[in-house]
Each structure stands twice: as structure tokens, then as C-alpha cells.
Amino acid sequence: MKKAVIKALKYPTGEFKMPKKFTEKDIEKNIKIIEKFPSDLKKEVEKMTEDTLEFRHRLGGWTVRQIVHHCADSHMNAYIRTKLAYTEQNPTIKPYDESAWANTDDSGEAPVTWSLQLLEGLHKRWVMLLSELNSEELNRTYFHPEHNKKITLVNLIFLYAWHCQHHIAHVKQAKKYKNKFS
């Protein structure tokens, strides 16, 4: 398989790029994406068969079940990073091994409804907090030791809006290919 095809399957919405310029409307639009994510994800997976939940969106990728649980894991970490940056001065966050987390028994076997329920409540609280941040607070930072850099809360908003769309695209991709090859 060609590198371009592999990259397109891995990044169906493209790789994340933080815009150099953005407006308050852009921030609001990205918070809306984060807000809608739990219902959008639920709509995509709620009627899936067990076979489809076990289908991988690409060779070497995660199953749909793992993607759903990964989103809960990732977004819990993002919420905690948000709260840390909001309440502390440039705190150092704890990175985690996403692949190792995706390969634990709870990620490979637990019902997706558990993570869908978790995401619903988590996103309500997260969006409430994000929506109240003023421009000074949006520029608060946390330090990511894996990337050796400070990350602003506004960057986190854009990154996680992308993350939401990225994994919805993976789920849609899995449904498409599962139907095509079944």
C-alpha cells in the first residue's frame, strides 16, 4: 500500500495544524464541535453490530470499540489538563501511552455504552468550563514534557475539536469498509 493511502487512512481529516490566526468565532466553533462530539459518536456507533465494533478502520489501527474507549481516555486527560492549566501556573502534565491504554482489557472488551455515557457527562462539564474562559484564561498554559513545550488552552480547544472529527472519521471509515467487505 502506498504511503499516501496509508496516511489518508490514518488521518482521514488531515493531520492537526494549529491555525496561526483565529477569531473568537473560531474558538466558539471548535467548542461546539467538542460539545456535539458525544452525541455524534453515539449516533455513529449505537446500532453497530459486535462484528462492526471489532472491525479495524485500517490495517494496524484500532477497532471501533477501542476508538470509542480511547476517546473517553483521551478526553478525560484533556479535561484534567484544562483544569490544571486553569487553576495552576503552567503545570507539568503527565503523558500516557495511548496505545497501551487502548490495549487494556477494558478498552478491548467493555461495552461502548460505558464510554459513551462517560463522554456525555464529561463533555458537558468540559464545555461549560471552556465556554466561560476569557481571552487571558484561554492563553493559560500547561507544560507537555513529551513535546517539551507549553500548550495554551486555546490550542487544546483546536486540537480536541480536530481529535473529535478525526475519530468520527475513523468510525465512519470502519463502517464503510466493513459494509464493503462483508
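Second entry:
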Amino acid sequence: MAGQHILGPTSHYFYSQRLKLHYVDWGNPDKPLLVLIHGGRDHCRNWDWVAQALREDYHIVAPDLRGHGDSEWARGSEYSMIDHVVDIAQLLAQLDSFPVTLIGHSLGGGIVLQYAGVYPEKVTKVVSIEGWGPPPQMLKEQPKSAFERMQHWVDEMRGFAGRLPRRYRTLEEAVERMREANPHLSPEQAHHLTLYGTHRNEDGTYTWKFDNYVRARSPYRFNMADAQEIWGRITCPLLLMRGSESWAVDLEKDSERAKAFRHPALVTIPKAGHWVHHDQLEHFLRVTMEFLLQRGNVPSNI
């Protein structure tokens, strides 16, 4: 792979809504800005392999979302999409290097679509990996009535107050849990992701860095009408990517969501689950690099 370097990124902080949030910077500030945004219960260093491949051509920045990685936890508030979008807008305003290219995975994929729709003039290109909302089956699992969803959410939030983070006796135990969550990972990938995704406690045990409260589902349903309105404002070239073995909605079969976007490139990566950029890194990089180099979108049959 191109871009193998000994030196890694440098750590930096910024403030949003009074929270101290962390990001890493891979250097080359004179190059076009490329921001990589991770998904839920993940962290900024999950992009290291992607950043190493692209760092020569871009100024790469990867934030830890609030409640994740080395960013502060949002005490007394929900981890909503709108809060994450505000945080990214604040980071980009401080970096002040527009227009920007955005790549996001899962929750991060939703954030980049939201930002690009709200500020289309500030974005050059967007890659969203499975960031277009929950599948219909997940929505059906929620109670139909609003008061039942609110009751469930209140009970869930109260339950988190008594939930203690799981402690792993060794880093290797945590690595095994990581591999259980994603069997596609190689041992090296799982070790790297776990190393940067855990704290070592005073007693020598390890716990995940993310706040347990990020697990909560909002009692308010995914608003398709609002999402479609925002997605429809995206004017830059757009690549929407999913794994063939993932639970994510296949936009080629979901016309309701797909019709909101203006001529997106739709790519399904074979033998990949939800973490496409981990499960099939080389294929992901090939498709992404071609998309970034072209003036328009890439064909859907790559």
C-alpha cells in the first residue's frame, strides 16, 4: 500500500457546545482538506489505514465524536445526529480550509450527508459508507406509539445509570471481543483498533473509551421527509458504499431513499460487512481513490 510512514498523526483539541473534543491531524496542511468521520462506538484511529494511503495527496483530519475516543462525554444530554453535525461544523469552521472532502462510516456517514446537504457550497466530494439511516426492519422493532417509545427511552436512559462498563483483564481479552463483533478483522486490525479504543484502568484492566450512553436510541423516529430534503440539496459528487454482507439498506432496492440523491454513485463491495473500509480495505481504497480523482461520480459497477 502507498503511503507507509513511521510517523503517525498528531493530537489536537477543539471546543463545541462547551465540550473538549479530540481530533488527529496527519499533516500536509497545504493539501486539500479531507475529513474522516467514524461511526458509533468507534474512534478516529479506525481510519489509520485509509489515512496512510491518502495522506500524501490530502490534509487528513479525523475527529473523535463526542462521547467517543479521547473526546469528552456529553454529560446530561443525548448523543443526537444534530449535536454531531454541530460539532463537525465547528471543527470545519476552525480549520477554515473550504471546500472540504468528507468520508464517513455509519453514524459518520450520516453526519457527512447531513453537513453536505446543509452546506453544499462548502463540500467538494462525499463518500458515505452505510450512512443513510436504519433499515426498515429496525424501525419496525420500535413501538408504534410515541408515548411507548418515550417510555422505553426513559427506562433505557435510567438503566444506563446503573450499567458498569465491562472490564477486560488483558488487552488480548478485549481484542477477542473486537473480533467477535467483526469476524472480518485480521488479528493485526483487531489489535490496533482495540489498542486505541480502550483505556487502561488503575487496576490494570481495560475498558472501552466510548460512553455507554451513546448506545441509546432516540424515541423520535428516523424522519425520512427531513432526511430526503437535506440529501436532495447535496450538489457535489457523491459515492454511497455498502458491504454485500451488511444489514444496511441496499439503495438499489430502496427507491424511496435513493431518489432523494442527485445522481449518486452506488457501490456494493463484495465479501464485506458493515465496516467496509476494514473488511475489504484494498477494494475500498481502489474505489474511493478513483472517485476522488475523477471530476464526476464513479460508475456503479466498480
